[in-house]
Amino acid sequence: MPGMENEGSNLSRAEEIKNQANEEFKAHKYGQAINLYTQAIELNSQNAVYWANRSLAHTKLEEYGSAIQDATKAIEVDPKYSKEKPTTLDCGPRTICRRHIMASSYLYKCMWEALQQRIRMILINMQLTSYVL
Prior knowledge:
The protein is 87% helix and 0% strand. By secondary structure, it is mainly α. Residues 86-90 have low confidence and may be disordered.
C-alpha cells in the first residue's frame, strides 16, 4: 500500500529531523532548532515530543507565548506526556509564568515611574503658569 509506505517514510523522516533539531538545540542554536522541530511537526503532528521540544526552544529564546502554546499542544496530543515528562512540561510553564510575572512587574514599575514623573512635570508647569498669570 503506497499510502502506508509514505506515512512510514514521513514518520522516519520526522525522527531524523527531530534528531537534527536536538543537535542544534544542544549547540544553543534555538532558532534553527525551532525551524527543524516545525518541519518534524509538519510530517507528524501527533508526536508530543516534537511539540514539547519546540516549546523548550521557544523558552530559551524567551518566546513565552509560543512556548506555552506548544507545551499545551504537547499535552493535547498526548495527555499522559505531562505526567511522563514532568521536567520538560512542568518546569517550563512554571519558569515561563515566573518570568512573565517578573517582566510584568518590571513593566508596571517602569510605567508607574514614568507616570509619576509626568505628573510632577504637569504640577511644575501648573505652578510656573500660575506665576506668569
